[in-house]
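Regression check, magnesium ion case 434:
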Amino acid sequence: MQHQQVTLILIIDDTPANLDVIYDTLNDAGYEVAIANSGERAFKQMQFQLPDLILLDVMMPVMDGFEVCRRLKTEPSTKEIPVIFMTALSDTESKTKGFDLGAVDYITKPFQEAEVVARIKTHLQLRYLTKNLEQQVTQRTGELVETLQELQSSHMQLIQNEKMSALGNLVAGIAHEINNPIGFVHGNVNHVEGYTKDLLNLMKLYQQRFPQPGEDIEAEIEAIDLEYLQEDLPKLINSTQEGIKRIRNISTSLRTFSRADSEYPTEFNIHEGLDSTILILKHRLKADENRPAIEVVYNYGNIPQVECYAGQLNQVFMNLLANAIDALEESNRGKSFEQVQANPNLITITTELSQDNQSVLIRIKDNGIGMSDEVKDKAFEHLFTTKGVGKGTGLGLAIARQIIVDKHHGSIDINSSYGEGTEFVITIPIRAKL
Ligand SMILES: Nc1ncnc2c1ncn2[C@@H]1O[C@H](COP(=O)(O)OP(=O)(O)OP(=O)(O)O)[C@@H](O)[C@H]1O
Ligand SMILES: [Mg+2]
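Current build output:
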């Protein structure tokens, strides 16, 4: 046996005098033996120490062996202890009854010493193996449950990544589609500007040379308000050009956001990443019937380009900014438009160089609902969310941490107090550490 402690065998028999032989035999075999002369005493003794195996006499007054066995098998603490019946009866009925009650074996008086020891040894071994097996099963089940959870979360992470890349593709597609028509509108408008200037000049020359062009032309000049037209047309063209410029910027931003991630870190302008992410989230910042627009304050510092995985950093900005908007909306709950207006929703984005000039710091701060200490402790955990089903998967920050800490060897920290707001501080080394 591999038991560390001495194995204890309890004999329950009202005529222990008969048991001298078996007592000695078991002692000689290295077992510790306890004796109880009734079922009641046995249960009392077992409150102090549980035996590893029980030898149980069938014929006893008050509580017979069958009754003792029945009780043993109903008690959670004793039900696993192997019970061997000792019986003078060799009738099959008693034996079957014993087995039915959960006994593992029986021995018939008078005892054959060697046989008794052999049977006890076998059952102890069986018990030991079963116990071991149970432990292994419990352990393996635990491991399997863990693996299953890991699988589930990596599955969700895959979905999230998939969503991001689908969004990236969509955005890239839209940017591409916008780009072509904007290209020719931009080209045409420049020509329109030139032609218009020429025509207006020519018009001026005509007016100087022919100050009295005749009644019909003068009537037409008045009808179309030529003076206003001459003044307004260049302005219209200017503002059209301004509009085109903006659309082109948007399209560039969209492309920045969707930038396919290379396998190696590349130089990236963090500010462009932040701007393009804000652009994608613009629809969530706009005013609606419940609140004015969420204001975004940019405190961009003088920082160099950062060697990084641009697409992944954009994903982090996206997760943090989406969380900030959620937190602001949560803090608006139950407030009127005017109440929110009095204490406006604010997102502040600050960038700066670290003190040792080796990293850039990006702070994304909101004056939303904030986090309790408990939420703060768990915020980065996989699948931790305080948002309703279908609203949050609890992956945003876990992924953000993975990207910043594991992928970029940077850090991401939270400053937050409940009811006041939250600030995330990201540090990324300027030169990628591979
Ligand atoms: N800016 C914030 N202000 C307040 N609480 C926040 C903020 N950002 C995160 N939290 C808290 O941290 C939790 C975890 O955020 P995380 O982004 O990982 O998951 P989520 O937003 O709930 O779900 P999703 O997977 O959709 O991002 C949130 O449920 C929220 O309780
Ligand atoms: Mg989130």
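Comparison notes: Residues 319, 323-324, 327, 366, 368-371, 375, 379, 384-387, 392-398, 422 surround adenosine-5'-triphosphate (ligand 1) (CB under 6 Å). The longest helix spans residues 113-209. No diff flagged against the previous build.
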